[in-house]
Amino acid sequence: MSANQPHRLFLLDIMRIFCAIQIYMYHSTTMYGCSYGYYIDALLRNLTSPVMSCFFVLSGFSIHYQHRLENGSEKWIRHFLKKRFIAILPSYFLFTFIWPLIHPEQLKEWIILLPVDILGIQTVYRTLFGILHNGGTWFVSCILLCYLCYPVMKAIISSNQICTSIILILLTHFILMYSNIVIRIFTLDTLYSNPIARTAEFMIGVSFSEIVFRRKSSAVTKISKVKQFFENSVGVIICTIIISVVVAKLNHAELKAIVFEYLSISLVLVALYLSTNMRCLILENSRLLSSLSGMSYQFFLAQLFLWIITDAVLRIFGVEGNSIKILTSFFICVAISYFTWRFFDIWIRNKLKKKFMQ
Hints:
The protein is mainly alpha-helical and 358 residues long. 77% of the residues lie in helices and 0% in strands. The protein contains 16 helices and no strands. The chain has helices at residues 10-31, 38-67, 74-102, 107-119, 134-158, 162-186, 195-217, 225-230, 233-250, 255-262, 264-275, 281-284, 287-294, 296-302, 306-317, 322-356. It is globular, with a radius of gyration of 21 Å.
């Protein structure tokens, strides 16, 4: 690591793990009939959209934290895209090709959609969300687009003044918030699986990372208090909160919607800012935390088959009940995730890196 990146941001790992667990808990209620009590079930429903926003903003922030000092050359772009695709595609392809083995009755549809799934463009077809595995792999399509766009984002914000990053955050955030008004008036689909909206959230994370770490690495100069406020990370967060509240009021949003829909990105930015100022050597060097964060991607994908496998296991042992379903499914999900990550993903990534990145 460079002097500007002196330690692992352990809070990013914790946030990533939290996102994975929340999505599992929500899916266990909608796909497997589990319940955690009335209030927790309601909280899980309300948190699902904010958590996915958190995932994409966090991904943009983390990626730029790792690569913001790179020179952005053509060689680096090739290296970056190869590395990211190698990290994402093997496990995705594995679960995609396992799908017809678990669901042989859907073989015809699987064959028809295979070119779309291999190219990772399923979110272009918005109504594919509920077909085959696309309800669980749509985010892969979005994150691939984010990675393809990142070199362009990096070139724009790295080669300009910090105000460019500020404008990108505030303008993008306004568009995302204003979209709620358009959706309500014209009764449109939400932006939940929209690849452009998710790429916009990713760009907010990238731009915020640039602001935070450029301020940390640059010398303090005498500037006006107004300019200092807007170039400060906290000032940017306050501006996003103001935009969220104003647009929410224009849209006649209720308090619950303001908290879970309009303020979610601002709260993620608060957490990201805090992550850069927190130190704990035990957590920074924790192999357990690093491993759990590393296999969170497989934890998402494992849920494609989790409920069928769990149901089969419970029938074999002749047990049932809400608590048993929760505990068993969670244990199986962790097991599938770990073995996929440890014995397939790491192995094939090393093979592909040796072949394509040396």
